[in-house]
Amino acid sequence: MSRRALLGTAGAAVAVTAASACAAEAPKPQEAMRGQVVGKASEVPEGGGVVFNSSKLVVTQPEAGEYRAFTAACTHGGCTVQEIEEGLIRCLCHGSEFDYASGEVVTGPAQEPLEEFGITVEGDDIVLD
């Protein structure tokens, strides 16, 4: 094996190992926020929702007093979803749409639903379980 081939193979192996380690060890922002307030219930309209950018969550209220929380990262390309209207959570990057009550894909290109997170409403505070 030539020196160039050996160095190229070694460099590729290091890059793959480093990427795998980072992906395996980096907790999701939501995991680090368990037990913390992620937003205010008064900001989430009945029949709609809000994207809380600081927690990277979208919180919806399909029925009065029924709150649901999903990751705000689209499962297609990782863009942050931008709109919640007409019963849909919309990602404007590539057009994916998700049901605002279940997180299930309504329109692709996304193939996987939004990850759901448990929340509790304490007074006006939305707390991540």
CATH domain class name of the largest domain: Mainly Beta
Helix content: 10-25%
> What is the CA-CA span between the terminal residues?
54 Å
What does the main sheet amount to?
4 strands, antiparallel
**Assigned CATH superfamily of the largest domain:** Rieske [2Fe-2S] iron-sulphur domain
Instruction: List SSEs in N-to-C order.
Output: HHEEEEEEEEEEE
List low-confidence stretches.
9-27
Number of domains: 2
Mean pLDDT: 82
Kindly provide the radius of gyration, computed on alpha-carbon positions and rounded to a whole number of angstroms.
Answer: 19 Å
Structural class: alpha+beta
- Give the percentage of residues in beta strands: 25-35%
Shape, principal axes of CA atoms: globular
Might you state the CATH topology name of the largest domain?
Rieske Iron-sulfur Protein
**Largest sheet, order of strands side by side?**
2-3-4-9
Task: Figure out the total of helices.
Answer: 2
Q: From the 3D coordinates, which CATH architecture of the largest domain would you assign?
A: 3-layer Sandwich
What are the salient characteristics of this protein?
Rieske_2Fe-2S; Cytochrome bc1 complex Rieske iron-sulfur subunit; globular; alpha+beta; four-stranded antiparallel sheet; 2 domains; 21% helix; 129 residues; single chain; 11 strands; 2 helices
